[in-house]
Amino acid sequence: xxxxxxxxLAYSTLVHPGDTWDEMRASLETYAPAVKQRVSPAEPYGVxxxxxxxxxxTLAGDPGERTRLRxxxxxxxxxxxxxxxxxxxxxxxRAVMADVYEPDWASEERVAYTNQVADILADITPASVSPxxxxxxxxxxxxxxxxxxxxxxxxxxxxAVAHLIDLxxxxxxxxKLALEPEPFCLLETTAETLDYFRRHVxxxxxxxxxxxxxxxxxxxxxxxxxRHLGVVFDIGHQSVEFEDIAAALxxxxxxxxxxxxxxxxxxxxxxxxxxxxxAALGAFTDTIYLSQTTEARDGRLTKMLNLADAIDAWRKDPxxxxxxxxxxxxxxxxxxxxxxxxxxxxxxxxxxxxADVPLSDHLEIETYTWDVLPAHLKTGDITDYIVREWTxxxxxxxxxxxxxxxxxxQGEVR
Length: 414
Known about the structure:
Blueprint: E1 8-11, H1 21-39, E2 45-50, H2 53-60, H3 63-75, E3 78-84, H4 108-124, E4 132-135, H5 147-171, E5 176-179, H6 190-201, H7 204-214, H8 218-228, E6 229-234, H9 235-240, H10 245-255, E7 259-264, E8 266-270, H11 275-280, E9 293-297, E10 300-304, H12 307-316, E11 322-330, E12 341-342, H13 344-356, E13 362-365, H14 382-408
Parallel strand pairs: 1-13, 2-3, 3-4, 4-5, 5-6, 6-7, 7-13
Antiparallel strand pairs: 8-11, 8-12, 9-10, 9-11
């Protein structure tokens, strides 16, 4: 949905089956019309499309299927404006864990996959939008062992940027690539992400590399890299890092690092770890996804790869007061989970800032964990769940926009 100055809004179809194009097409045709009918019956409806490596190969190699997709979208008054090209392989119904980052940006496969998705987007999206590609945070941190690894990763990333520059020159379609920082990855915190861009992408060496790939002068390459490469800011991820969400977003804005997608996601929060809380957390440990957890204790942050690791450490030493935040996506419309809380306040802070000065032209709701949520958090079917998240976000945006208009006098009758 086009929200005017506040950008385009969609929910992530990563929540649905979509490991192959047949699966993704079936999910799209099943769920998107049902959600549109309830949230945007009379207005064009924006779609965030998950494309796996297999789906990208299918669509890239089949012009007829791309035409079929374009026609179906037009017939249903829908348009794609963003693609999740982060998980390359299977994502549903099996253990994913750290494999979700593979192939990473050190590999040829990641470059080829991303370029295929860019070409598909240039073909299927309306000329009125500049579509974005959500991609992995370069690599799982433990797999990056030397500066040479970072150099290889950056070189591959800039090859993808060069492809986007060439694509726009050939088709007049601007496609944007957005890296998504995540706990335990090469890009993890907002500060680390800014440091990476300054030291590697925007550096003299980075610009020279892009000049060599494109044949353009440095005066043009320096601007084009910002035109095509930025970040996804996942509010849930950065909340797990205990970041001040509004301050983190301001730091990106002030540094000129584009936020090509602002992602509304809430993480599980345990304000005080107790025996009762640990016992109840068992419902959240049986998951196919990583559950990176950060512990705040005595003014110090400790990071653990999974919630189960945090529980094991607590059982060995349960003394002291501590708070946990864990990378388990929970419904954004909930703040109180009955014994636990969520990081929903970070979403509210981000939307208030966005309503004042828009941070991104792409907004997305990303709660993909419906299939592994504890039963007591599932109310209604998946369509009910998506609509409830959508409605909450729209209401929060409306309140933030009204507060902005009141503060600036824009809402006054003249």
